[in-house]
Amino acid sequence: MEGLLDHSLRDALTKVGGVDRCVSEFIRVTGTLLPYHAFERVVPELRNHSRTAAGVPVRAQLLGSDAQCLADNAARLAEMGSAGIDLNFGCPAKTVNLHRGGAVLLDEPETVARIVAAVRRAVPAAVPVSAKMRLGYKDDSRAEECAQAIEAAGASELVVHARTKAHGYKPPAYWERIADLRAVVQLPLIANGEIWTVADALRCRQVSGCVDLMIGRGMVADPGLCLAIQAHDRGLKGYSLSSGADRSAPWARLLPLMLQFWQRVALHVAPRHRAGRLKQWLNYLRRSYPEAQAAFDEVRLLQEPALVEQWLRREMAAQSSVS
């Protein structure tokens, strides 16, 4: 999730708990072997045994169409200790697709297979190579062919975002098509798309037949969602099917993580853009937290970093006095 779920937000969300593994935002590869610092800029967790501060493994994701160049960069990432290599065949961004990256390659299953096979050969057998795909580019007519190509090329697992590029992020997600793919491949499939609540997760599992889920925007909007799903799986009582936010990650617990997020953002984002990063997260949080709406209204017009941090500390102090 380029521009949103970077290492700063990964750090905060994994501290809430419930996440088994992260995948980085994509690293674009176009004809060159990237230097070590380029990988560490996107995945600074590489300096911590490829784990977040909370100990959650992070798998670096590559995007591109040059199989040999992707393989060379994957080999470097493996050398750096990445928890795995993930290949992006799902990005719907127009600019990315125009440069033959992401979802546009789903019209070329042979190219997809060539990329996966080259990367698989380039990294040690112990290093997982996974892929993420959408159901297709303009339509889903070649979804099965792409999934089979990824499996035959040696991928260890496949995440399927249950929409085409043409669908974008518009609801619904077509989870039933993931079930179709499960019927033609044996490699583990992970379902993705439109999972915002525990109820969504349960429906997705039922329709897709997948046990494992990848959650992106739903986790940004409700950082307690994965904990709530796990609690439901363990049979714990008291978790709402519509939202686990009020129990798994209450607002007072999020505020210190929000401050840590803000402080990390300050290390790598220009001052004029820092407030926008916090507002971006608050905008998602409004979906699950009434407090986030009030917070968003308060900081909406703030641009000066010092004023934003003052607001954060005031909010934390106010919550502490209430609790």
Give a description of the structure.
This protein has helices at 7-16, 36-42, 67-79, 94-98, 109-122, 143-152, 175-182, 198-208, 217-221, 225-233, 245-248, 251-268, 271-285, 290-299, 305-322, and strands spanning 22-28, 58-63, 85-89, 129-134, 157-161, 189-192, 213-214. By secondary structure, it is of the alpha/beta class. It folds into two domains: 7-246, TIM Barrel; 251-322, Bacteriocin As-48, Chain A (Up-down Bundle). A seven-stranded parallel beta sheet has the order 1-2-3-4-5-6-7, with helices on one face.
Query: How much is the average pLDDT?
Result: 94
How many β-strands, per DSSP?
7
Whole-number count of domains: 2
CATH top level of the largest domain? Alpha Beta
**Rg of Cα set:** 20 Å
Q: Could you give the distance between the termini?
A: 34 Å
Low-pLDDT residue intervals, each spanning 5 or more residues: none
Overall shape = globular
Number of helices: 15
- Write out the strand line-up for the largest beta sheet, numbering strands in chain order: 1-2-3-4-5-6-7
Q: In which range does the helix fraction lie?
A: 40-55%
Q: H/E element string?
A: HEHEHEHHEHEHEHEHHHHHHH
**Secondary-structure class:** alpha/beta
CATH architecture descriptor of the largest domain: Alpha-Beta Barrel
CATH topology term of the largest domain = TIM Barrel
Described by strand count, sense and barrel closure, the largest sheet is: 7 strands, parallel
CATH superfamily annotation of the largest domain: Aldolase class I
**Fraction of residues in β-strands:** 5-15%
